[in-house]
Amino acid sequence: MTDSTIAHPATTFPTGLGAIADGLELVVMDLWGCMHDGVRVYPAALDALRRLKERGIAVALVSNAPRRIARVVPRLEEMGIGADLYAGIYTSGEMIWRHLAIRAEAAYRALGRRALAIGAVEDRGYFGGTDCAFTDDIEMADFTIVFGVADESVRVADFDSLLARALARGLPMICANPDLIVHRGGIEEICAGAIAEEYRRRGGTILIEGKPYPGIYRRVMADLGISDPACVLGIGDALRTDVAGAAGIGARSLLIAGGIHHGELLRDGAIDRAALARITAGAPSPTHALPYLVW
């Protein structure tokens, strides 16, 4: 019995992205933990992006960033990820904004207009182009919205009282980032998803967009004219979002083990295959896995 069979029979461990690129029409590429660490771009990942372009494979940058696209693009350009390297960029924050601006879905039409932000608000102009506005008074709020937290010192428990008050009023919560945690320059901090999941656990109603939910994948594929998910590869560092999201639409996935799961999966720069099998038990497993994104 081979090592890979012992570890996880469904997952292969290629030498790089180039080894599995044949037949691809679209790559759904994660950003944080895959292309950069929140501070610096990974040079090998940037090279892989350029190689995909050379092969004529469309790349959609798909992030659970709780921001409008217009606020993400300049930071990517600063890192060297230019618009010429991808076919489109999509964020969970943009998806939420569109729902609030258009209100095509019943759940969003039912929301009121006044939002109480739980946690940090990076962009006070986020609601521009919608009929929503921020309020600092929970008694005046029609719903709550969570984007993230101020820094790594903040914990979900810090919001206990506020969540209890929102729950008592029956306020729905919008979550602009489904991620639970992120590593910013190697330092772990909670994300909006951790607060939203606690609210849901207490019985609250949440509205949430981004990976792993299918809406963002459907939009990417429709925009780029891709109909067959067998020609799509989702690349990212999170089992819960990137791998599960790709599996949910019938696409292949490539897990970057050196990202959010590095403490569980990497041993001396190599993937611990037994550990991968262990943490994916009962959940979608990645089609492929690499320590870091390389061509």
From TrEMBL:
One Gene Ontology cellular component annotation held by this UniProt entry: cytoplasm
Cited Pfam families: Hydrolase_6, Hydrolase_like
Statement: the UniProt record of this protein carries the keyword rRNA processing: no
Keywords recorded for this protein, A-Z: Hydrolase
Signal peptide: none
Hydrolase in keyword set: yes
InterPro entries: HAD-like_sf, HAD-SF_hydro_IIA, HAD-SF_hydro_IIA_hyp3, HAD_sf
Lineage: Bacteria, Pseudomonadati, Pseudomonadota, Alphaproteobacteria, Rhodospirillales
SUPFAM superfamilies (alphabetical): HAD-like
Protein name listed in UniProt: HAD superfamily hydrolase (TIGR01459 family)
GO molecular function: phosphatase activity
